[in-house]
Design brief:
single chain; 89 residues; mainly beta; three-stranded antiparallel beta sheet
Length: 89
């Protein structure tokens, strides 16, 4: 199984930075957030919304996830960027 979580995060001002998944556009590189039993996580790779769900932009592989929020993927974003997210404690 492919690891899809970047890191646990605590989203500060979630409504200001992340958009609800229902509004996610098709055909754009997006950063996705998922919620599971361990908390909220940002994926480590950009995804694109397609008719049948989500695909990894780099590989074209289908990604079997149920994201809750999205924002545009920023090429310069790294695992150390704050971007309004803080590593879980």
């Amino acid at each position: 199984m492919m690891q899809i979580k970047a890191r646990p995060i605590v989203c500060r001002h979630l409504d200001e930075m992340w958009k609800p998944i229902l509004n996610a556009p098709f055909g754009r590189d997006l950063e996705l957030a998922v919620l599971d039993e361990d908390g909220v996580h940002a994926l480590v790779f950009p995804c694109r919304r397609v008719g049948e769900g989500w695909k990894n932009v780099a590989t074209g592989a289908r990604v079997d996830i149920r994201p809750t929020h999205w924002r545009d993927w920023a090429m310069e974003r790294t695992l150390n960027d704050d971007d309004g997210l803080q590593p879980g404690r």
